Amino acid sequence: MTLLPPHESGPEEQQPHPDHDRGLEFDLSTMLSRRSLGLFLGAGGAAAALAACTPGGSSTASQPASSASTASATASASPSAATSASATPSPTLTRAIAECGVEIPQETAGPFPGDGSNGPNVLEASGVVRKDITSSFGSASATAEGVPLTFTLTLLDNANGCTPMAGAAVYAWHCDRDGKYSMYDSSLTNENYLRGVQEADSNGQVTFTSIFPGAYSGRWPHIHFEVFESMNNATAAGQVLAVSQIALTQAACDDVYATAGYERSVTNMKRTTLQSDNVFGDDGGIYQLATMAGSAAAGYTAGLNVTI
After folding, report:
1. What backbone torsions phi and psi does residue 44 show, to the nearest 5 degrees?
2. pLDDT tens, 44-70?
3. Which is nearest to 207 in space by CA: 147, 155, 285, 140?
4. For the residues 171-181, what does the mean pLDDT come to?
5. Residues in Cβ contact with 32 at an 8 Å cutoff, skipping those fewer than 6 apart
6. Domain 24-307 annotated CATH 3.20.20.190
7. How many CA atoms lie within 13 A of 206 on its CB side?
8. Helix, strand or coil, per DSSP, at residue 195
9. What are the residue ranges spanned by the domains of the chain?
C-alpha cells in the first residue's frame, strides 16, 4: 500500500464542496462490465494503440526523430508477456513491454487531488467512471474549453515480467486552460470536470479524452494520475499503487499556447523549465515525458508507459 506524497505548491486552496451523488461503488454495482462495454473500450482501443508511446498517423511537432527506427525494431519483438494478456497484442504494447524495466517515479498528488486526501472526494461520486472528462457530471454542467487532447497510459507490472495490468484502475485529473482545478478554485467549487476513472483493458491501457491543460505559475504543464489495483479499490486515496504525473512536451505546449484562450500559459511557460520544475526537475522528467503527436488545429495525442 502506497501512501500519498506531500502536496505540491500551487494556487491557493479553496473550501471543498459536498460529496456528489451515490458514489463509485454504486456505479460499479449498476454498470455492465467494462470489459464487454464498448463505451469505454471499443472505439477507444484503436485510439489507445495510436496514443500510447508511438502515436502515429498525423504529423507531429514533438515526435522523436527516432520513432521510425524504434517502431521497426518493435515489429520483430513478441514478448510472451504480451501474448499472455492478449491473443493479438498491439505493436504499442509490444514496444512498451520491450522497453519496460524502470518504474514510474512516485510524485506528489498536489494540493488539488479531489480524492479525499485533501478535501473533496470525486471518487465517491456517481458518474466519475468515464472516458471523456471534458465536462462536469452529476449536478454540475460546465465544459472545459481548449485544444483537444487524448492521452493513454499503458500499465505494466514490473514484478511479473512487465505483463499488462489488466483490470487495474486509473484516476486522472488536471487543470483547465486557465490553470484552475475544478472542485478547488473559488469559481469552480461546484464543478468536477477534467477528472475521471477508468479500468485498464487486456493490454493494460486506459485512454482519456480531454483538453490540453494550461501552464500555471511554478509548474511545468502536466497531468496527474493515481493507479489502483482494481476498480473496487478506486474509492480512497490510501489504496493507490502509484501516484505520478505526465509531463507534456515543450513543442506541443508552445504550439497550443500560441492559440486563443491560452494567453496566460505563454507567460507562465517562460518562468519554468523541466529542469527547474519542483516535480520533474530531479531527472528532467525523463521517465514521465509523454510521446506526443498532432497539432493545435487538429488536437493532440499523448502516451506514456507506466511501469509499477
Report:
1. -70, -20
2. 333 333 333 333 333 333 333 333 333
3. 155
4. 98
5. none
6. no
7. 31
8. strand
9. 24-307
